[in-house]
């Protein structure tokens, strides 16, 4: 059996704060023991473990003392990666991500409107993708 993608880890200045943001946006839970140094989210149905290979890939966050926010779409600290979050309608999902602490990015490269770029509270770009 091939390995399964278990965890995607985002560097940030405060793991608990960013974990709470994504928990609210995604409707996932914080794993017991999460703190400002390391926070893991638990998706519905649980994450992948040695005992539960049918679980889902999840997100974790780790504090970096000398954190510098990404400077997408260019600059000294490019994004390096981003998350795409699928939604039925961007206009319906946007108010909730803004209320959770996201902000709309100044750069919006989608000419068709099929995705919209936001910044999470730590400055990572992410997209809502949908109709």
In short:
Pfam families: Glyoxalase_6. The chain is an alpha/beta fold and 131 residues long.
What does this structure look like?
- The chain is built from 2 helices and 8 strands.
- With 131 residues, the protein is of the alpha/beta class.
- The chain has a 4-stranded mixed beta sheet with strand order 1-4-3-2, with helices on one face.
- A hairpin with a 7-residue loop joins β2 and β3.
- The termini are far apart.
- The mean pLDDT is 93.
- It holds the Pfam family Glyoxalase_6.
Beta-strand percentage range: 25-35%
Mean of all residue-level pLDDT scores: 93
Strand element count? 8
Number of domains: 2
Radius of gyration: 15 Å
The CATH topology label of the largest domain is Signal recognition particle alu RNA binding heterodimer, srp9/1
Q: At the first level of CATH, what is the class of the largest domain?
A: Alpha Beta
Principal-axis shape: globular
State the separation between the terminal residues, measured CA to CA: 36 Å
Order of helices and strands: EHEEEEHEEE
Helix-strand category: alpha/beta
Task: Produce the secondary structure layout.
Layout: E1 7-12, H1 15-26, E2 29-30, E3 38-42, E4 58-63, E5 83-86, H2 90-100, E6 103-104, E7 115-119, E8 125-129
Parallel strand pairs: 1-4, 5-8
Antiparallel strand pairs: 2-3, 3-4, 6-7, 7-8
Task: List the defining traits of the structure above.
131 residues; alpha/beta; Signal recognition particle alu RNA binding heterodimer, srp9/1; 4-stranded mixed beta sheet; 2 helices; 8 strands; 27% strand; globular; VOC family protein; VOC_core
């Amino acid at each position: 059996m091939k390995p399964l993608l278990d965890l995607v880890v985002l560097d940030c200045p405060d793991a608990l704060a960013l974990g709470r943001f994504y928990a609210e946006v995604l409707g996932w839970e914080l794993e017991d023991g999460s703190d400002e140094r390391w926070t893991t989210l638990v998706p519905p149905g649980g994450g992948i473990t040695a005992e539960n290979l049918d679980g889902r890939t999840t997100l974790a966050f780790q504090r970096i003392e000398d954190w510098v926010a990404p400077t997408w779409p260019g600059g000294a600290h490019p994004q390096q990666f981003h998350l795409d979050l699928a939604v039925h309608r961007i206009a319906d999902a946007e108010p909730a991500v803004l209320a959770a602490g996201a902000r709309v990015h100044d750069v919006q490269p989608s000419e068709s409107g099929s995705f919209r770029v936001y910044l999470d509270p730590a400055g990572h770009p992410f997209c809502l993708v949908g109709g």
